[in-house]
C-alpha cells in the first residue's frame, strides 16, 4: 500500500515550524511496512487542499493529512474534505455535547468559532482522540481513503497509533518488510558505499546512506519472502565488509555505546579539550546516568592553561605550540591523572575558519590515555567544508565523533584506525 | 513571484531526517518577500522527480530543489533535470579538475562514483558553491526556472544566500517589506506576547514569535508605504515595553553579544559547569576569535571535583550537597580565580530525567563572579518539558541561555532579573 502525507498550514511554508509531524509519520509508517511515497505541504486555502488531496489519491491508496482541524477560520481541512467528497458539513450532536462539557469543566464560555470543531463532512467517520477534544476524520473518496489528523503532535500521534495504523494494517495486508540501521563512525560515505556495492546487489535488499559529520548511518531494508532472513544475511555481510567501523545499531548513538562500555568495565573517563570547547564533555553527559561514567573535564582554551591545569610540559608547548600530537597525548594523560579517571581523552587542533600557528584548518590531534599503556594518538583527516561560517561547527562536531570513536576502540582493544579506509585502500583504488 | 520547494530523498519520506531545509528556505524566502506556495518531498526516483518538477512549474514560476546532488547512485536530481529538459548529462571539465584538486589536498584517491558530481545537464548554469565541492544548478525549463541545491544544509544555505536570492530578487521585482528580528532571553513567550499586544495592533505591522528553550525571537514585519518607518516605530515601542530582555537583533546570538561585550572590555571569562557538561564552554567558543575572550573551563561533574578543581568548600558540599546557590557562587569565583579570568560563570542543578538529592528536575543555580563584587546568583524557573527523553537536552539548553544572559547582564551592570516578568507580573495576571 502506498500512502501520501499532506501537511496543512501556512506556518510550515513560512518555515516558522519544522515539519516534525511528517517525519514522525514517515518513520512510524515505515516501521509498519507502509511506504510513504510523497509528502506535501500546502497553505491554508480550501481549493489548494482539495486539489492536493485529489492529486494524492490519484497516485496512492491512502492520504494522511495533519493540521487544519482547529477552531479558527484558517483551519480549512474539514471544509476541503467536504468539498472533495461533494457533501455538506454537518454538526455532530455528540461532538457538540462534548465541547459544551469541556467548556463547563474549565469554567469558560464557548466562543462561536469553537463550534467549527463539531462540524464534519457528511458521512465521514470519526477517529477517536483520547488525547484531546477534536477527533480525527476518515473520509472515503473515489480514489481511496483520507485520514485527517490534528496538527498538535501529541494528539496526532495518539490517533495514529490507536486508530489509523491498526486500520491501515487491516486494509492493506501489509507486506513483510524488515529494516535495520547500522551506525559507523570515522569513515567516508563514498568509502562505505564502494565497499558495500555487493550488498546493494543482493536480492530484495536496499541500502540508504545517512551521512552526518564524521558518521554514516546505513539503513538496510529487506522485503519479500523471508525478509528477516535476507536482512540478517545483509547485516552479517556488511559487518564483514566494514569491520570495526560499525559501532552500533538503531538509536544506539556513539555516546551511548561509550557510556555502556565504560559502565560494563566500572570505568570512568575525563576529557581535556581545546578546540571543542566543552562539546566532548557535553556529549559524554547527554545520557541519563552519565555521572557513573564521566568524571569531569578541563577546557584548556588558553595555551598556558594546558600546562597549568593539565600538566602539559611547558617545553613541549614552547617548542611545538599547542597543536601537536604529543600535546594531545599529554592532555589525555594529564586529565586522566588529575581527575582520577580510568581513561582520559585529549584533543587539540584548529577549528578555523583561519589557520593557526601554520597549521591548516581541520588539523586535529586526539589522544586517549588508559590503564597500562601509553596514550594512543590519531590525527583524522577532516575534510574542510568550504570557507563558510559553519566550518567551526562542522570541524568541532567531527572532532567530537572521532574522539568518542577512538575512546570506543581503546575500550574494545581495537586498532585506532582499522577499517577506516585510508592510505592502503586508496592505493588499492588507484591500482 | 510564487516559488515551490522540492526536497528529494528517501530518508525524508522515511522520517530519518526532518525537513529542516524546507523550513529554512521558507523562512529565508519569506524574509525576502517571496511566497512559498507548496513544499513537496519525493523519494530517490528519477521519473518521480521529473513529474514533481514539471507539476510544480505548472503552478509556480520557480522551483528550488534540495538533495540528490551527491556522488552515490541514489543521487538522481541531476539525471531528472536532464530528462525534464530533454538534454544529456555532460561532464564539466572545470568541475572534474576541482574534484581532483580536492582529493589531492586531502591525500585520497577519487572513487569512480565521485565523478558523478562533475556531471551537469547540458546547458545548465552552475551556481557557485563556496562551502563545498559540488555547485548548484540552474536549469531553465518551459514553465520556469529550477534551482537545484545540495541537501547538505550549510552548502545549501551558502548557495541560496550568495547566488539564488540575489537572482530571484532581480527576476521578481520584490515588494517593499521590511523585517527585523529582535532576540530576547529569559522571558516566557506568553509574557512577551501579552506585553506586546499594542504593537500587534499597529497599522501594517505583524509580529511572529519564534520560541526556543529560554529564548523568544520576535519577528517584526512591516509592509506598505513607509515600511521602514513603521518598522522603526514598532521596534522602538517593543524595546520600551520589553526593556533589558532584548539582547540582540537578527543573527546576533547571545554568545556573540557576550563575546563582543567581553572584547570591548578586554575581559575574559571562565566557566565552571556541572549539569551542562561543557555546553557553556562550547557556546562561548562557537565564535571565531573566541580565544581572546574565553580562557577555559572546568567540568566538575563528580561532586568531589567541585572541591578539588574549583575550591568549593567541602563543608558546604557536605551540608547542602552540590545543588545549592552558594555552590554556584563558589564555582563561579573558583574558576575565575584558578583560571585567571576577569569573569567566572558557575552552574549546578538537576538536568533530569530523575530528581537528585531531593531537588526536582529543572532546579538550577547560576552564579557569575566578576571584579569588585560578590558573585550574583539566580535560580531561573525552568519549565520541565513533559516526561520524555528530551528533558535533559532542554533543561541543559535553557541553563546555557540563562547563564549567558546573566553574564551579559553582569557585563552591562543590569539587574539580574529586571524585565523577565516573574512574581509581580504573575500576580497582576491573577488579579
What's the layout of helices and strands?
Two copies of one chain form a homodimer.
Chain A: E1 2-8, H1 10-13, H2 20-31, E2 35-42, H3 46-59, E3 62-66, H4 77-85, E4 89-91, H5 93-105, E5 119-121, E6 125-127, E7 136-141, E8 144-149, H6 153-172, E9 177-185, H7 189-195, H8 197-200, E10 205-212, E11 215-223, H9 227-242, E12 246-249, H10 254-264, E13 269-273, H11 279-284, E14 294-299, H12 303-310, H13 314-320, H14 325-339, E15 343-349, E16 364-370, E17 373-378, H15 391-412, H16 423-430
Parallel strand pairs in A: 1-2, 1-3, 3-8, 13-14, 13-15
Antiparallel strand pairs in A: 4-5, 6-7, 7-8, 9-11, 9-12, 10-11, 15-16, 16-17
Helix pairs in contact in A: 2-6, 3-4, 10-15
Can you describe this structure?
- The structure is a homodimer of 431-residue chains.
- Chain A has 431 residues and is an alpha/beta fold.
- Chain A folds into three domains: 2-172, MoaB/Mog-like domain (Molybdenum Cofactor Biosythetic Enzyme, Chain A), CATH 3.40.980; 177-249, 2-Layer Sandwich (Alpha-Beta Plaits), CATH 3.30.70.2860; 254-412, Alpha-Beta Complex (Maf protein).
- Chain A is 41% helix and 24% strand.
- Chain A contains 16 helices and 17 strands.
- Chain A has helices at residues 10-13, 20-31, 46-59, 77-85, 93-105, 153-172, 189-195, 197-200, 227-242, 254-264, 279-284, 303-310, 314-320, 325-339, 391-412, 423-430, and strands at 2-8, 35-42, 62-66, 89-91, 119-121, 125-127, 136-141, 144-149, 177-185, 205-212, 215-223, 246-249, 269-273, 294-299, 343-349, 364-370, 373-378.
- Chain A has a six-stranded mixed β-sheet, with helices on both faces.
- In chain A, strand 10 (205-212) and strand 11 form a beta hairpin.
- In chain A, helix 2 packs parallel to helix 6 and helix 3 (46-59) packs across helix 4 (77-85).
- Chain A starts with a strand and ends with a helix.
- The interface between A and B is large, with 87 and 85 residues.
Amino acid at each position: 500500500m502506498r500512502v501520501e502525507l499532506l501537511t496543512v498550514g501556512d506556518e510550515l511554508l513560512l518555515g516558522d515550524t519544522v515539519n516534525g509531524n511528517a517525519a514522525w509519520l514517515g518513520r512510524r509508517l515505515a516501521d509498519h511496512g507502509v511506504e510513504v511515497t510523497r509528502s506535501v505541504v500546502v497553505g491554508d486555502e480550501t481549493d489548494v487542499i482539495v486539489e492536493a488531496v485529489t492529486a494524492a489519491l490519484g497516485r496512492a491508496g491512502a492520504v494522511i493529512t495533519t493540521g487544519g482541524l482547529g477552531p479558527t477560520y484558517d483551519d480549512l481541512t474539514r471544509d476541503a474534505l467536504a468539498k472533495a467528497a461533494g457533501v455538506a458539513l454537518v454538526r455532530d450532536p455528540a461532538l457538540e455535547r462534548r465541547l459544551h462539557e469541556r467548556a463547563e469543566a474549565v469554567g469558560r464560555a464557548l466562543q462561536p468559532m469553537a463550534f467549527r470543531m463539531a462540524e464534519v463532512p457528511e458521512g465521514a467517520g470519526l477517529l477517536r482522540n483520547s488525547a484531546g477534544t477534536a477527533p480525527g476524520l476518515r473520509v472515503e473518496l473515489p480514489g481511496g481513503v483520507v485520514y485527517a489528523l490534528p496538527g498538535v503532535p501529541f494528539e496526532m500521534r495518539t490517533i495514529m497509533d490507536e486508530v489509523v495504523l491498526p486500520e491501515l494494517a487491516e486494509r492493506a495486508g501489509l507486506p513483510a518488510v524488515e529494516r535495520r540501521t547500522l551506525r559507523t563512525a570515522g569513515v567516508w560515505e563514498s568509502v562505505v558505499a564502494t565497499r558495500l556495492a555487493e550488498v546493494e546487489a543482493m536480492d530484495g535488499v536496499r541500502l540508504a546512506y545517512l551521512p552526518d559529520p564524521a558518521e554514516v548511518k546505513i539503513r538496510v531494508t529487506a522485503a519479500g519472502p523471508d525478509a528477516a532472513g535476507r536482512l540478517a544475511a545483509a547485516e552479517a555481510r556488511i559487518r564483514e565488509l566494514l569491520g570495526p567501523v560499525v559501532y552500533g545499531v538503531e538509536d544506539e548513538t556513539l555516546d551511548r555505546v561509550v557510556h555502556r562500555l565504560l559502565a560494563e568495565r566500572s570505568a570512568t573517563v575525563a576529557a581535556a579539550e581545546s578546540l571543542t570547547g566543552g562539546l566532548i564533555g557535553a556529549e559524554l553527559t547527554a545520557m541519563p546516568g552519565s555521572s557513573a561514567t564521566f568524571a569531569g573535564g578541563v577546557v584548556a582554551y588558553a595555551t598556558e592553561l594546558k600546562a597549568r591545569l593539565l600538566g602539559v610540559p611547558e617545553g613541549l608547548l614552547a617548542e611545538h605550540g599547542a597543536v601537536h600530537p604529543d600535546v594531545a597525548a599529554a592532555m589525555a594523560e594529564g586529565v586522566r591523572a588529575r581527575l582520577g579517571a580510568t581513561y582520559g581523552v585529549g584533543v587539540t587542533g584548529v577549528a578555523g575558519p583561519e589557520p593557526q600557528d601554520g597549521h591548516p584548518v581541520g588539523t586535529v590531534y586526539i589522544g586517549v590515555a588508559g590503564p597500562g599503556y601509553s596514550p594512543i594518538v590519531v590525527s583524522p583527516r577532516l575534510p574542510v567544508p568550504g570557507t563558510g561560517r559553519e566550518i567551526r561547527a562542522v570541524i568541532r562536531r567531527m572532532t567530537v565523533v572521532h574522539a568518542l570513536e577512538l575512546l570506543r576502540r581503546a575500550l574494545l582493544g581495537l586498532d585506532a584506525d582499522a577499517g577506516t579506509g585510508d592510505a592502503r585502500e586508496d592505493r588499492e583504488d588507484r591500482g
